Structure formats: C-alpha cells, structure tokens
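Hi support team,

I submitted a single chain yesterday and got back a structure, but I'm not sure I'm reading the token output correctly. Could someone confirm the output below corresponds to the sequence I sent? I've pasted both exactly as they appear in my results page.

Thanks,
R.
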Amino acid sequence: MSVGRNVDLGLLQLQVLWLLSKKKSCGYELMKELNALKKTSITQGVLYPVLAGLMRRELIRVSGKGTRGKKFYVVTALGKRELKRNCLEFLKTFAGVITDYKCSLCGCGK
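Hi R., thanks for writing in. Yes, this is the structure output for that exact sequence:
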C-alpha cells in the first residue's frame, strides 16, 4: 500500500509518528508522553484507533511484544518519509503564525 502525496496526517498522528521515530514504544508509554506533551487526556479510545490507522497505511508496525503481551510500535521507512514531508508542510503552514506570536511576546517588531 502506498500513501499518496494528497494524504496529510492529523496533528495527533504526526505527534505519534514523531515520538515513535525517537524510540519504539508501547501504547501506554505513548499515552503518557502525549498527555504530558499535550496537557490533555489522550485515552485508549483515542490512541489505539490512531495506531491502527497508521498501521493500515504502513507508516508504523509492531516490532515485538513485551510483558503481558504489550505491543511495541516502530516507524517504518515509509512512515519516516511521511513524517518528514508532513513536518515540512506543517512548518510552511505555521511559520508565519509562530513568528508573529513569538515576536508579539518579545516585542521585536518583526
């Protein structure tokens, strides 16, 4: 299955891919990291459908099982390419917003 250039990842999917690009992780660890990152509550009912969707698109895969059958997820080569592409799109889209917000805080007038 290939991911077309017209498929953009949602922010949560992008964050999951980003976290998994740093290290393999199980769902529980991802929930803890996302909750700390987002300052919100990411539940199993939200996370596992995201993981299933990323697996369907072959952006992540299960790399093994840990204690009590925990699945560990890793990013695939396709997932790494999509992460890079989506991060670049995110930066292009929000660069002006981020710069304006940062400059409004520091008062540099840019």
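A quick pointer for reading it: Residues 11-106 form a domain with the Arc Repressor Mutant, subunit A fold (CATH 1.10.10.10). Let us know if anything else looks off.

Best,
Support desk
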